[in-house]
Amino acid sequence: MGAQTYCEAAPGHPFHGPYHDGEYGFPSDDESVLFERLVLEINQAGLSWLTILKKRDAFRAAFDGFDVDRVAAYGDAERARLLADAGIIRNRLKVDAAIENARRIVALRAQHGSFAGWLAAHHPLPKAEWLRLFKKTFVFTGGEIVGEFLMSLGYLPGAHHPGCPAWAAVEARNPPWLDAVRRGFTGYGAVDAGIPAPTA
Predict the structure, then answer these.
(1) What tens digit of pLDDT does each residue of 142-180 get?
(2) 130 catalytic residue (yes or no)
(3) 41 given a catalytic annotation
(4) Which domains does the chain possess?
(5) Following DSSP, what letter does each residue of 23-92 receive, concatenated?
(6) Is residue 23 annotated as a catalytic residue, yes or no?
């Protein structure tokens, strides 16, 4: 994106535009959506987000629509298939991380019901505490990956600035970070100061 912010550069772009306008920063409790975003953020490490968006349909097909249970059941044959699939990122560590993280999401259900339930049970947290929690719970979850994952799904602020046309749509969905601020949470730091008052 160069020197421009994502809000300045993404609108109108054939790949970034739809993601920025309708997904980035928007909350979701759909487990396949959450798992997809985690897998894509992991695969973006060392690459551009544009590369990942261009390969998104191939990722969705390769990982059975990001069905957590199906991916958690993958064995050697599925791993070999993924590593031979030129449509995705053929990185063994990233493929293994997707499979292992699916298994860990399945394990989370015993206590939290779902991946979304696990996120909700720990929210709100400052970014540093989220990073520690993810590192303890999942694999291949460095700071940039976790930060973008949480911001992209509305658990941390920063996806859009208040002047961005997408801001109002995100605000109307009351993402978890904004709900927390409206309830008095101050753990996000100085970014809180620029948040408009509730409109409802």
Answers:
(1) 999 999 999 999 999 999 999 999 999 999 999 999 999
(2) no
(3) yes
(4) 1-26+154-200 (no CATH), 28-153 (1.10.340.30)
(5) TTT-----HHHHHHHHHHHHHHTTS-HHHHHHTHHHHHHHTGGG-HHHHHT--HHHHHHHHT-TTS---H
(6) no
